[in-house]
Amino acid sequence: MPLNIPGLIVPFQLLFYPRLALPAVVVKDIRQLDWAALKAAGYRGAVFDKDNCLTIPHNDTLVPQLQDAWSDCLHTFGPGNVLIVSNSAGTHLDPGGIQAESVSYHLRVPVLTHRSLKPAYTCITSIRTYFASLASPIRDGELIVVGDRIFTDIIMANRMALKSSKAPLSVAEAKTTTSNSRQEALIPTNEKEPDVASRGPLAIWTTGVWQKESMAMRWCEQKLVDRVRVWTNSDPSVYYGRRFVKREVVEEMPVAKRPWYWPPPMGNEKA
Ligand SMILES: [Mg+2]
Predict the structure, then answer these.
(1) Rounded to an integer, what distance in angstroms lies between the CA atom of residue 70 and that of residue 193?
(2) Signal peptide: which range, if any (predicted)?
(3) Centroid of ligand 1 to alpha carbon of 206 (angstroms)
């Protein structure tokens, strides 16, 4: 696994802004997302992680169980408004962008080419540049960011929210502030929808895994989220879950076994 420098400084930032770790929506996988409800709430674009969110790690094709949900997503947002941001395809670990091309072909959407791994601010800048370049530009508050890892996908989405509004996210600030734009952007204190200009992207955490990978780190991430929910006395997924998560139960996901030669040979390594 490559060294993720932008990810290494996350714990220090969490000391001051623990809510960066809180997902707005928690689902097992994307089949539970209500695309129509998201569109109706003003979300026009989507950023997706790849590994263990849409594909099996080190594989470029969509997990077969997600075919219908993925088609519905593309139909709802439009393929040009959906972007794959991976810490494998499209990075320096993908020389020549060969894997990015393959993923783009199989998933039918563009793959972001970026030099810094998620959740780096330079990666965020690349995402904003892409969505600003569209014929109908998409703002941060009109994006959903979907991924299976707290320390990369969710932190990145919430970092975008941090820069999208002026209100506090820290525990101390939150305790002294009862109502402001940033607090409402991440954790609404009432049933009023924050307007698109003042909110950040919607951070969506997929907790299921299609192939076991970094399970100890995933356990730590879950414990961190639980702890921050208690510490800050807030859980945005209660509010957003009622609105954007389908009630029906999805079939249990079969977890693929790792090949015996895991991890793959050098030069084929991906995050
Ligand atoms: Mg992933």
Answers:
(1) 26
(2) 1-23
(3) 9
Q: How many angstroms separate the alpha carbon of residue 56 from the centre of ligand 1?
A: 9
Pairing, β 143-147 against β 45-48: parallel
Distance, CA of 85 to CA of 201 (rounded, Å): 14
Q: At what angle do helices 155-164 and 121-132 cross, to 10 degrees?
A: 70
In order of their start, the domains of the chain are 5-244 (3.40.50.1000)
- The pLDDT tens digits for 217-268 are 999 999 999 999 999 999 999 999 999 999 876 666 667 666 655 555 544 4
How far is ligand 1, taken at its centre, from the CA of residue 110, in Å? 17
As a whole number of Å, the end-to-end CA separation of the chain is 6
90-147 confidence digits (pLDDT tens): 998 888 999 999 999 999 999 999 988 999 999 999 999 999 999 999 999 999 999 9
The full length of the chain comes to 271
Distances 96 to 101, 127, 157, 268 between C-alpha atoms, Å: 9, 20, 27, 13
Distance CA 217, CA 149 (A): 9
> Which H/E stretch holds residue 216?
helix 215-232
What is the pTM (predicted TM-score) of this model? 0.84
Nearest Cα to Cα of residue 22 among 185, 251, 136, 139:
185
**Could you tell me the distance, in angstroms and rounded to a whole number, from the CA of residue 119 to the centre of ligand 1?**
12
For the chain, give the longest Cα–Cα distance: 53
How far, in Å, from the CA of 176 to the mean position of ligand 1?
35
